[in-house]
Design a protein that fits this description.
- By secondary structure, the chain is mainly α.
- 57% of the residues lie in helices and 0% in strands.
- The chain is built from six helices and no strands.
- Helix 2 crosses helix 4, helix 3 runs antiparallel to helix 4 and helix 3 runs antiparallel to helix 5.
- The chain starts with 20 loop residues before the first helix and ends with a helix.
């Protein structure tokens, strides 16, 4: 169709200078939660929301995890699901979107998946240094979350998460 696709070779990325070990541990925990195949409902919502709020410091580890999934291959449902979560989080943080699709039902092929990962790394090498996060204000404690439970299980999970948050 005449469109130009910019790609760069993927690989592990360094943390942003000044990211503390506590921040690194928190980011890694949130990424693991977002990528876990059994994470749903409020837990997934909170992990994604926190990574989006962390913004720029989360981008290199998110891309590194994306690279690791690409190396492992997208043959399993777990890797496909984790990759789509990473893609969605990165898109939400950066406003950039690639042609990445994880599953064949969405139009994915090995070439398209590989190209999507390479497009993210191209964005990183071209724009990351100048990238500024939008300043998002955190919701007030009494504001309701935008998450609306769709099932009884999600409603119970949300209530449990609210109780646990109230105890902390």
């Amino acid at each position: 169709d005449g469109s130009k696709v910019l790609e760069a070779e993927p690989g592990p990325l360094e943390w942003i200078a000044g990211t503390t070990s506590e921040e690194r541990a928190q980011i890694e925990k949130l990424i693991a939660t977002a990528c876990a195949p059994d994470t749903r409902g409020p837990d997934l919502f909170h992990a994604r929301a926190e990574l989006i709020a962390i913004c720029k410091p989360a981008i290199p580890p998110l891309l590194t995890k994306f690279y690791e999934l690409d190396l492992a291959g997208f043959d399993t449902y777990e890797n496909q699901t984790a990759a789509m979560q990473l893609h969605k989080i990165l898109t939400e943080i950066t406003g950039y979107s690639t042609t990445f699709k994880a599953h064949e039902a969405l139009g994915a092929t090995d070439e398209r998946r590989s190209s999507g990962v390479k497009q993210w790394f191209s964005w990183y090498h071209r724009k990351f240094k100048r990238f500024e996060c939008d300043t998002m204000t955190a919701p007030e404690e009494d504001e309701e979350l935008l998450f609306e439970p769709r099932t009884e299980q999600e409603r119970r999970d949300l209530e449990r998460a609210r109780r646990e948050a109230g105890n902390n």
